[in-house]
Amino acid sequence: MTPAHPLNLVDVTVPHEAHADARRFYTETFGWTVDVDLPGYPIMGTGPGGGQVGLMWEGNPQSGDLSGFWKTGKAVPFLGTEDIEATLAEVERHGGKVAAAARQTGPVKVAVFEDPWGNQWFLCENGASA
């Protein structure tokens, strides 16, 4: 079996305006289940071996100073990493830029970077402590 790449896509977050309606849409339309029910951010499983989709409503106070990255109509991809600082350094070394420095958010450390063309990506380091 081929080992997983260290920067696998771990989650795509879907910003929306109507939280209960969005949750209902994804569970009823695709049969997805809520695997982790965080306040204002349910994380839905897409099935065995599938990825996860988080639902973040625009303006959610839980997102704090990251709220500018949640825009309805624009999905937000998350890449998992074991070392968020080293990954951000590589992004900058290759012409990208850090859009939001690493910070602890609940059980994960997150950051945002832009590729050289302005596309935004979140990084997620699981199990990190402040």
Order of helices and strands: EHEEEEHEEE
How do the strands line up in the largest sheet?
2-3-4-1-5-8-7-6
Q: What's the shape?
A: globular
Helix content: 10-25%
Radius of gyration: 15 Å
Runs with pLDDT <50, length 5+? Answer: none
Largest sheet: number of strands, sense, barrel closure: 8 strands, mixed
Helical stretch tally: 2
Question: Care to count the β-strands?
Answer: 8
Strand portion, in percent?
35-45%
Report the mean per-residue pLDDT as an integer.
79
Distance between the termini: 34 Å
Class derived from helix and strand content:
alpha+beta
Give the secondary structure arrangement, pairings included.
Blueprint: E1 9-16, H1 19-30, E2 33-38, E3 41-45, E4 52-57, E5 76-80, H2 84-93, E6 97-105, E7 108-114, E8 120-126
Question: What features would you describe in this structure?
Answer:
By secondary structure, this protein is α+β, with helices and mostly antiparallel strands. Helices cover 17% and strands 41% of the residues. The longest helix is centred in the N-terminal third of the chain and has 12 residues, at 19-30. It is globular. The termini are far apart.
